[in-house]
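Hi C.,

You asked whether I'd gotten around to modeling the 311-residue construct. I have! Everything is below, sequence then structure, no commentary in between.
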Amino acid sequence: MGGEYVCTLSPELVQRAKDEINEVPERRAADIEHIRDWLKHQPHINARMDDWTILRFLRGCKFSLERTKEKLDMFYTCKTLCPEWYKNRDPQDKKMRAILELGTFLPLPGHDPQSRKVVIIRTAGHDPKEYTMDEVFKATHMISDIMVDEDEPMSVTGVVQLLDLENVTAGHAMQMTPAIVKKAMTIWQDGYPMRPKGLNYINTPAAFDTVFNIFRSFMKEKMKKRVHIHGSDMESLYKQVPREMLPVEYGGTNGTVEEIKNYWLQRLDARRDWLLEDEKYCVDESKRPGKPKTSAELFGIEGSFRKLDVD
């Protein structure tokens, strides 16, 4: 969406935005303008200035202007200090294409009964000998960024994730080093204005708890409460994610994995220019008032692990 924001929400979601995230339609434009004006005065941030991008951050921060500013600064800082995920995001690059063809990250068509977006993440979709975790995360963020740009309801209602661990091997587990987990959790929790409403794990292997405990250690309290581990019990999953939302391969009727994957390949190709241009929206640490931020400070793990021992 370019320039001026035009609301596409149903009356019911407009009401939910008022009740749940403090959005006041009459004040919306003024809030957006306030943040835009603030961004213009940040010498170190080159941000997207359109209404819709700013509104997404306001919604993710429940319209707290202070939190929105912090999150925007953090978002552009994370993007800049993590070039391995955010540079050269070309969906037609040969290696990227090969990963995207695997269908490891699948936002499902439509929304669940609470109007939330549902995403399936097939964690063992790639061969760990061929692709690094950074390459896989880079590919999934291309899809994720297009999804949040194109799906207005989820900016109000949030997202439910379904992580399928079928065929996970030690090779996959070894790729999830504490360093990469810390980076991922920092970017997702502190950088994105996402509203994660549920984390569902299926087909979990025996050693799952060990790796998952590393993740848990970086999770905010309210996130921990939204985790559901189903093992191979699909009926348990359907209580969280209605069956009809899911692809055929998961017992549902909402398209096949192949069809959903191809839909997103098409969207990425259509938005290729946007993805490539997106790189220029970043921070210049040399212009930051006060002390520049570093990736060690943002994503470093020594501190976190020392902290863990004390708990």
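If it helps when you're writing up: Residues 5 and 51 are 5 Å apart (CA to CA).

Thanks,
B.
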